[in-house]
Amino acid sequence: MSIVDHHAIDLSPRISEAGVADYVALLKPRVMSLVVFTALVGLVIAPGHFHPVLALTSILCIAVGGGAAGALNMWYEHDIDALMSRTTNRPIPRGRILPGEALAFGLTLAFFSVMTLGILVNWLAGGLLAFTIFFYVVIYTMWLKRWTAQNIVIGGAAGALPPVVAWAAAAGSLSPEPILLFLIIFLWTPPHFWALALFRTDDYQRANVPMLPNVAGPDATRLQILLYTILLVAVAASPWPLGYFDAIYGVTSLVLGAGMLWYAVRVYRYRTGSAALRATRGLFKFSILYLFALFAVLLAEVVVSAIARMMWS
Amino acid sequence: MRTGIVMDSKKPPEGIVLTPEQKKRQRERSIAIAVALGVMVLLFFAVTMVKGPIVLHRPL
Fold first, then answer.
1. B14 lies within 8 A of chain A by CB
2. DSSP-based three-state secondary structure for A145
């Protein structure tokens, strides 16, 4: 008689029924779309001529690297993903993909994206992409997220790096412009995620994730949102007077910034009931539009001036 | 008189038998891996063509 009852253990090998769509979901496609878009802007505004094939290679590597970071994040967080309504439908909590499979998938993509960018484009960009993945997975996901209420403030650096990686790919060096793009996304992250955390407090509480509203309370979070928004609007407009981006960008930045401030003030003022919920949801949605529009202006300016040059020559 | 082994056609196959759904998903995944590898080969080829002989210049 054996101590372990073998009948109680399922020894049959598990045959995966995960489809391509499940693996695509591991890449966090919505986050990836923002990564690709901000990287594209970093690439396009970088000085000098960059061959389209190398540009495509860079964007592809940054997208895959971002996806790898998403897959590794889902591997590590599958326990808390199962507890939150926002994440319960992810492939691992649903049982479509095993954590080990997600880990292998994420590591493979991370390795190939970094090596491909380094070999085919340059090692500054490859190194920065490796650092971005490391920062998101190890510093943010494994360390900060479950430890401090400042998790998304520091962790936001990972989400802010893609335009810097893209600039490094195109220019082969760094300069103040990509650092300004980095700062814009870095300062945009806290108001964006704290607005989400305000109307998802129960989710984070259930998962025992120390988001600011759960730790410091909703009122302190509202104040922090307002302060970060003021800082964001100032920093986002600064490239205009500093001479890095032109007046079209500057004016657009101020107009969009006024919108962000208006929503942040509403979040600060309306603290209870449906008005408070509307205000936080409004800020969350507008913050996405804000970042997209700000970067779209930079992209549009380069595209329009290129078309104008072609027409004149 | 004929001698030899007579195969039993009704004998169930040994080992793991995939369901039609599992087979379909496995095929999907295999195609996705093939496409990804194909894209990577094309990418390396295209960049080699773009860069030209400079790809051979790799100072340590």
1. no
2. coil
For A15, nearest residue in chain B (alpha carbons): B22
| Mean pLDDT computed over every residue of chain A | 92
pLDDT for A308 beyond 90:
no
Is A158 in contact with A139 (CB distance < 8 Å)? yes
Share of chain A above pLDDT 70, in %: 96
A261-283: per-residue pLDDT in tens? 999 999 999 998 899 999 999 99
Distance of CA B38 to the CA centre of its chain: 11
Same domain, A191 and A162: no
List, as ranges, residues 53-82 from A with C-beta within 8 Å of B. 53-54, 57, 60
Structure tokens at A227: 């302060």
Q: Which residues contact A128 (CB under 8 A, 6 or more apart)?
A: A161, A164, A165, A168
Summarize the confidence of residues A103-124 as an average pLDDT: 97
The stretches of A200-217 forming alpha helices (DSSP H) are 201-206, 212-215
Phi first, then psi, for residue A270 (nearest 5°) are: -90, 110
Question: Is A190 in the same domain as A147?
Answer: no
Q: Which range has the worst mean pLDDT, A57-66, A241-250, A258-267?
A: A241-250
Q: CB neighbours of B29 closer than 8 A, spacing ≥ 6? A: A16, A18, A19, A20, A23
Q: ipTM, 2 decimals?
A: 0.81
Under DSSP, the state recorded for A94 is T
The structural domain count of chain A equals: 2
Return the domain boundaries, chain B. Answer: 21-52
Residues of B in contact with A19 (CB under 8 A): 25, 28-29
How many CB atoms sit inside 10 A of residue A304's CB?
11
> For chain A, how far is it from start to end, CA to CA, in angstroms?
89
Question: What pLDDT is recorded for position A1?
Answer: 45
Residue A293 has pLDDT above 90, yes or no: yes
Residue for token digits 């997208």?
A63
Residue-range definition of the domain harbouring residue A73: 23-172
Residues A167, A72 share a domain? yes
Predicted pLDDT at A310? 85
**Model confidence band, residue A298 (pLDDT cutoffs 50, 70, 90):** very high
A10, part of any domain: no
Return the DSSP state at A4. Answer: S
